[in-house]
Amino acid sequence: MDCLSRRGLISAASVGVTGPLLVVDDAEAGSRALIRTNQVPVGGGVVIRNRRVVVTQPRAGRFRVFSAICTHQGCTVSHVADRRIVCPCHGSRYAITDGAVVAGPAPRPLPRRAFVVRRGRIFLT
Questions:
Q1: In this protein, which residues make up the domain named Rieske (predicted)?
Q2: Which of 23, 105, 107, 113 shows the smallest number of beta carbons within 10 Å?
Q3: Full 3-state SS string of the chain
């Protein structure tokens, strides 16, 4: 279920979402790379919808990759704001460092995805 909608985006704006809102449908056209490292903001992250992952950079040069599927009811997370991965469907929030639930109703952390960084690009393994 993809919950990023016009209504969701307007809702996010109305509650004062701060920070970069970057949703990537195709991070690297024609490539297996998820995204370039310089496209992931420090202290933030990027949702890559077509790969169903969210890539975060909690500290400079430290990357994490998580499933973008909320553990509550399977919605796709919409964005990263204030060091939190946000699900627009029911308000769950996850930490960008380890995917831990910081606001429910999600019952479990976001699952981590294995990845490698090569030549400035992030690849799933």
A1: 32-124
A2: 107
A3: CCCCCHHHHHHHHHCCCCCCCCEECCCCCCCCCCEEHHHCCCCEEEEEHHHCEEEEEEECCEEEEEECECCCCCCECCEEECCEEECCCCCCEEECCCCCEEECCCCCCCCECCEEEECCEEEEC
Cα–Cα distances in angstroms (integers) from residue 19 to residues 33, 74, 82, in the given order: 24, 25, 7
Domains located in the chain, CATH noted: 6-124 (2.102.10.10)
Model pTM?
0.75
**42-75 pLDDT per residue, tens:** 999 999 999 999 999 999 999 999 999 999 999 9
